[in-house]
Amino acid sequence: MHHLRHLCIMLCSAMLIVAAAAAPNLPEKTTLGDFVTFMRKVVGEPKEPRAIDDRPLGPGFVADFDVVDLGFSENTNAGKTIDDVLAGLIKEYGSQCDNFQTQPIARQSAGIAVLRSSYTCRVLDDGYGEMIVITDGTRYQTFDFLGLVRDKQKIARLGANIYDALLVAYR
Fold it and tell me: Has residue 145 got a pLDDT over 80?
């Protein structure tokens, strides 16, 4: 019985190693075309997509979608955890508006880690936004978007669509 248990542990460990090795990595660099293609597939046609070199957490893109402005950044981890990257977003956006409050929504940590969080704040009006961070241990990508609280359902649906698409793409 002891040998059978030992064999099972070895087999399960080997399967986990193979699964971890098979997990896809984030791309070295996302092009504007890649970003637009992903956004079209997941949330719809982006309006005025453009590259921005000086986004808060690295170079990326911005685009307008119906009720929100969406930003995307990517960079190397440089030792940061997914929570460190989210903290960087919170620090950046929290300094730009009053009554900034965050609320975690979802987290997936198997293989590639994906984290989704919402936030509310007051800029000129009451705002509702979401932040999504994905990391493979070497690189990270962030999606951040803000709209008005009255559009919270639409904004949350956009966040759920992006989060779900990332989970499917990087399983």
Answer: yes
